[in-house]
Amino acid sequence: MRHLVLLGGGYGNMRILHRLLPNSLPEDVHVTLVDRVPYHCLKTEYYALAAGTISDHHIRVPFPEHPRLTYLFGEVVHIDLDKQSVQLKDGSNISYDDLVIGLGCEDKYHGVPGADMFTHSIQSIEKARAAYEALNNLPPGAVVGIVGAGLSGVELASELAESRPDLHIKLFDRGERILPMFPKRLSDYVESWFAEHDIEIVRCSNVTKVEEHTLYNHDQPIHCDVIVWTAGIQPNRVVRELPVEKDKQGRIILTKQHHIPEYENVYVVGDCASLPHSPSAQLAEAQAEQIVQVLQKRWNGEEPPSEFPPIKLKGVLGSLGKKHGFGLVADRPITGRVPRLLKSGVLWMYKYHNGY
Ligand SMILES: Cc1cc2nc3c(=O)[nH]c(=O)nc-3n(C[C@H](O)[C@H](O)[C@H](O)COP(=O)(O)OP(=O)(O)OC[C@H]3O[C@@H](n4cnc5c(N)ncnc54)[C@H](O)[C@@H]3O)c2cc1C
After folding, report:
1. Measuring from atom 5 of ligand 1, which residue has the nearest CA?
2. What phi and psi, each to the nearest 5 degrees, are found at residue 176?
3. Cα gap 93→87, rounded to integer Å
4. Are 175 and 187 in contact (CB under 8 A)?
5. Ligand 1 pocket check: which of 7, 19, 44 to mutate, most ligand atoms within 8 Å of Cβ?
6. Which phi and psi (to 5°) does residue 104 adopt?
7. pLDDT (tens digit per residue) in 210-219
8. Whose CA is nearest to atom 39 of ligand 1?
9. Which residue in 25, 29, 277, 336 is deepest, having the highest Cβ count within 10 Å?
């Protein structure tokens, strides 16, 4: 049997599984999926888990079942590309013929002292749960600092404002306006929603240090009862430690067939891969579609496509609490209830198609 090992059961590898199962997996291929969590987690909803507006169960999707699919639930600590072996925290090793690395990303702290120790995170389910506990156990009137006003910082701030209107939320960002990657019209819309909901935007901030319950903006201490970091991501540590070529963000540079140049049997999917778009679940899934084609061709003894058409993304949708939202669809900015409904619809469809 040929052994395909999938590291990480996130958006990228889930798409690979769903394209191969039940009928497109060759008879002589066995798949092992390794994840530290025994279900697929809907990471795009972690902001709502942390804010306390959805249940933990609501964002878990069972992994599929198949006679030639095995699960190993444990922590990947090292990949030896030359020995074709993956090491788990419990000391066990898994060997592979083909490997797809889809371990996702972690927070990037940009060297800010104390940020890793004294801020909460929404980059993993365990951390989002810890953020939920910290945020929801706060007494009335407590101060929450959110560092970073990109999509996840904005979604967390707005969801928390609806969940706990008694809290004072401060959103720190380096820029003059929030959501700098979107057209100004969208930033203005979100900023006016924030004003209506008493979310304070601290513009042009520079977080220089974090201590317990204190964030330093331009070296000025600001008391915060809980601080959440949403100011940058980087690939998983296991991937950062691989001795292969990476881009400036630390993502692995791949061939057009999505494998590591020196290792034709090692593919990288999603947030760990260097791709011409910002990381997203949508991108991980689109890339996974191409990886499946390469795997199937190679298993058939055929040449994979020499290149693929560029990946086209459908757009971005962001939520502002449960009733409002914003987005860019077909390059057109949209605001209000329609993008929020679309976002709920996308989530519903995702769960439906993944057998939930
Ligand atoms: C709050 C928030 C909102 C977002 N909103 C959107 C959105 O609206 N649209 C969008 O397209 N994208 C969104 N994203 C980004 C999206 O979630 C990621 O780009 C996507 O999850 C990447 O998919 P992936 O397959 O690379 O990894 P992930 O989905 O992150 O999966 C990685 C998997 O690896 C496992 N894992 C990690 N390390 C280990 C280890 N050492 N050992 C074992 N298992 C491990 C994890 O448990 C996880 O199951 C959002 C992200 C956040 C945080």
Report:
1. 44
2. -80, -25
3. 5
4. no
5. 44
6. 70, -160
7. 999 999 999 9
8. 103
9. 25
Q: Both ends of the chain: CA-CA distance in Å?
A: 30
Which atom of ligand 1 sits closest to the CA of residue 283?
A: 11
Interval between CA 40 and ligand 1 midpoint (Å):
10
CA of 104 to the centre of ligand 1 (A): 5
Sorted by sequence, the CB contacts under 8 Å of residue 348 that are 6+ apart come out as none
Residue ranges lining ligand 1, Cβ < 6 Å = 8-12, 34-37, 41, 43-44, 46-47, 75-76, 102-104, 122-123, 151-152, 155, 236, 238, 269-271, 279-282, 284, 317
Instruction: Give residue 105 CA to ligand 1 midpoint distance, Å.
Output: 7
The pair of three-digit structure tokens given for residue 313, joined into one six-digit string: 């993304």
In order, the DSSP letters of 272-324 are GB--SS---HHHHHHHHHHHHHHHHHHHTT-PPPS--PPP---EEEEEETTTE
pTM over 0.70: yes
Q: Which residue has the tokens 């025994």?
A: 38
Whether 211 contacts 113, CB under 8 Å:
no
CA 235 to each of CA 12, 232, 250, 287: distance values in angstroms, whole numbers, following the listed order: 14, 11, 6, 16
Token pair listed for 64? 């599929």
Residue of minimum CA distance from atom 53 in ligand 1: 123
Question: What is the tens place of the pLDDT at every residue in 116-166?
Answer: 999 999 999 999 999 999 999 999 999 999 999 999 999 999 999 999 999
CA distances from 299 to 20, 28, 99, 133, 295 (A): 12, 9, 13, 47, 6
Question: Closest Cα to residue 215, out of 282, 148, 314?
Answer: 148
| CA angle at 266 for the pair 66 and 123, rounded to the nearest 5° | 75
Contacts of 112-115 spanning 24+ positions with Cβ under 8 A = 112/207, 112/208, 112/209, 112/210, 113/209, 113/210, 114/209, 114/210, 114/211, 115/147, 115/207, 115/210, 115/229
43: CA distance to ligand 1 center in Å? 5
Residues 178, 153: Cα–Cα separation, whole Å? 10
Residue 260: how many other CB atoms lie within 10 Å = 21
